[in-house]
Design brief:
about 290 residues, alpha/beta, eight-stranded parallel β-barrel, 10 strands, about 45% helix, globular
Length: about 290
């Protein structure tokens, strides 16, 4: 079934391609050699109807990287918007997710992850996925190994290109890396200006050491009043909002981000961060140094 769906990707109706470099901002190369757009729309809090509406809006604003989390129960609405958009499938980067962290033991976790992969493929219905992500790690090393084997099986079946994780500690990443299979390309973590500063600096270092790219989830939601004030002060010299400075800080740290909004203005602002660079002085100020 996976291979049939992968072949169906080419049947999504085509529209004139956007100019190279104009859609969704720049990309970075992952450890498996694939390209990953640095700005993503994460559909984490919407139902199918809202997912259809706001995915369509995000596409209109230029987004091309999408994180469709199974936790939101909206993958059918997202997939419907993609199919209706007329944008060629190969211009989009689509990441699904699997929730199998409650399964205990290698075989149970493998089976649970496999069912989750099949559900993603069926509900998204956009052909082969660019990425599949484990939402949370299992309770122990054996369970994590089973989860990862389930993702590997989806890739071997032709259903997905890249494999990723979310909320994994360095020790949990090492369980995967020692399993002998493919490498995690992305680790999605809570990250933002002023948020658990020392802990996140360490997590960024440890993921980089393992050649795993960090993607910040809900990076604007973690900002406190002090962080917003600091970002506002920096933003004045660039004509940018505090939120844009907060997103640029993430990029300057070598990470990427996935955001969510219902506002066309905010959609546009969240990818209008590629025309300036933060100075070393700016970064030190935002880091509270």
């Amino acid at each position: 079934t996976l291979l049939k769906g992968a072949a169906a990707a080419s049947t999504i109706s085509a529209a004139p391609a956007l100019a190279k470099g104009s859609a969704g901002g720049p990309s970075v190369k992952l450890c498996d050699g694939t390209q990953f757009p640095v700005a993503s729309f994460g559909l984490q809090v919407y139902d199918d109807e809202a997912a259809y509406k706001y995915t369509t809006l995000a596409l209109e604003c230029g987004y091309r990287n999408f994180f469709a989390s199974v936790l939101a129960g909206n993958q059918k609405g997202f997939g419907k918007a993609v199919r209706a958009s007329g944008i060629p499938r190969d211009e989009l980067y689509i990441c699904g997710s699997v929730l199998s962290n409650r399964a205990r033991g290698e075989e149970a976790a493998f089976q649970s992850t496999g069912r989750g992969c099949d559900a993603n493929f069926r509900d998204l219905n956009v052909g082969k996925l660019d990425m599949i992500m484990l939402d949370y790690p299992g309770p122990d090393a054996e369970s994590i190994q089973g989860q990862w084997r389930g993702l590997e099986a989806m890739r071997k079946d032709g259903g997905v290109t890249s494999l990723a994780v979310s909320n994994f500690s360095p020790a949990q990443l090492d369980v995967v890396l020692k399993s002998g299979g493919g490498r995690p390309t992305v680790n999605q973590l809570p990250l933002g200006v002023g948020y658990k500063t020392k802990q996140n600096a360490e997590l960024l270092r440890e993921n980089k050491k393992r050649n795993v790219l960090v993607q910040a989830w809900s990076p604007l939601r973690v900002l406190n009043s002090g962080a917003l004030s600091a970002c506002a002060a920096v933003g004045k010299q660039y004509g940018k909002t505090p939120q844009q400075i907060a997103l640029k800080w993430i990029l300057a740290k070598g990470a990427t981000y996935t955001c969510q909004t219902t506002s066309r203005q905010h959609f546009q602002e969240d990818i209008d961060v590629f025309d300036f660079e933060l100075s070393a002085k700016d970064l030190a100020f935002l880091d509270g140094e």
